[in-house]
Write a structure and sequence with these properties.
This protein has 13 helices and eleven strands. It is rod-shaped and about 135 Å long. Helix content is 41%, strand content 20%. The structure holds 3,4-dihydroxyphenylalanine. It is found in: Cytoplasm.
């Protein structure tokens, strides 16, 4: 009987040694120690033996079972360790992969929004409010109230987008400039007794049927209006120069007024800013060249009267500038159409991080942080 046990032991230990993985080892275990396993079968034979036989074979068979169990447990440890090592060698963690960016560093503020904020911050510092008006305007506010009557040729100059006529025959339109906010805001001020005097800017979208490298059907303007009893052209010139110096972050700027014509101002002037070219680069704020950046003038008394303001007592100045143009000049984006193409690559390059909020104290364009606009680096 002991010979049988020895042979079984040799076979099983050989099978354990040959088992290459956990499944093979489990098969050996079941074959030996399972209910119908060879070792279990041998143990069962003890029941049919004489007391004497049992006394010799019992310890032998039990020793066989223990030896097999032990050998299996040992082999299992080896197999598990090998499997773990294989997994560790196979699974790699690529430390060079970028960590997912926090959303607040992913999004960008559009240069036009940034510039609008900068403009508002500068004028707020000079005591200006920010006023708003609707994009869809009536002919009255867009033209008539601004001293551009029905048959006036200036109406044709504006390439207006008209909506379908209302039942009363009047066609609303997309405002062609921010000037309609002048009369709207003055009327509101009269109604709630907040003015005159008035001192506000009105930035916003404007629309004209026009499209080429420097014109888009939708663009942005900022209107400015100051109305008080003694407001004069010196105030206008100072205000514009102070604004431009702050906006372009130069110590001072001398602007040039060129005679012009706008129905809503008298006299009317174009605003020219000094500039110079350095190879391909355009440097603004200094130099012998001039570039036009907007229109201005003393508010025509007809406009004040449309807002029911006593034009014998009050007078004022107004100006209007293109915001997109200011953004292009300050941040060096060459093509206006790219501003409105919603190309994420463009926005990533020219846009601004939301945490770089412009302010006069922290720096309007965060020059200290931003070597390149928008990158914050
Ligand atoms: N509204 C004019 C335009 O779009 C710009 C302008 C000129 C606005 C003179 C003004 C102004 O307030 O005084 O061409």
């Amino acid at each position: 009987m002991s010979a049988e046990a020895d042979k079984l032991k040799t076979d099983i230990l050989a099978a354990i040694a040959a088992a290459e993985d956990a499944a093979a080892l489990e098969a050996v275990r079941v074959g030996a120690l399972g209910k119908k396993g060879t070792v279990s079968a041998l143990l069962k034979t003890l029941g049919g033996m004489s007391a004497e036989e049992r006394q010799t074979n019992g310890p032998l068979f039990n020793a066989l079972r223990d030896a097999v169990s032990e050998a299996i447990a040992e082999k299992k440890t080896t197999i598990d360790a090998a499997a773990l090592n294989a997994r560790l060698a196979e699974e790699t963690l690529d430390m060079t992969l970028p960590v997912a960016t926090d959303p607040q560093f992913e999004g960008r503020i559009h240069p036009v929004s940034q510039v609008m904020e900068e403009i508002a911050a500068i004028f707020a510092d000079m005591g200006f409010d920010v006023a708003e008006g609707p994009d869809i305007e009536s002919g009255f506010y867009n033209f008539t109230a601004l001293n551009i009557p029905e048959a006036h040729p200036a109406r044709q100059m504006h390439d207006t987008f008209y909506l379908n006529a209302e039942e009363d025959g009047e066609a609303l339109l997309l405002r062609t400039h921010t000037s309609p906010v002048q009369v709207r805001t003055m009327q509101n001020g009269q109604a709630d007794n907040s003015g005159p005097p008035f001192r506000f800017i009105a930035p916003g979208r404007t629309y004209r049927c026009d499209s080429d490298q420097t014109h888009t059907p939708m663009f942005h303007q900022v209107e400015g209006l100051v109305v008080d009893e003694t407001t004069h052209m010196g105030h206008l010139k100072y205000t514009l120069e102070a604004f431009l110096a702050a906006f372009f972050e130069v110590s001072d700027i001398s602007i040039r007024f060129r005679p012009s014509y706008f129905p809503f101002t008298e006299p009317s002037m174009e605003i020219d800013m000094p500039c110079r070219r350095d190879g391909d680069r355009l440097i603004v704020g200094e130099g012998d060249d001039w570039m036009e950046i907007g229109g201005s003038g003393m508010v025509n008394p007809h406009v004040l009267r449309h807002a029911c303001i006593d034009a014998d007592k009050y007078q004022g100045f107004a100006f209007g500038m293109g915001i997109d143009r200011l953004a292009m000049l300050k941040y060096g984006a060459p093509d206006l159409r790219a501003f409105f193409e919603a190309d994420l690559r463009w926005l990533k390059h020219y846009g601004f991080l939301p945490i770089d909020v412009p302010g006069l104290a922290g720096g309007l364009s965060n020059k200290s942080l931003a070597g390149k606009p928008g990158t914050g680096q």
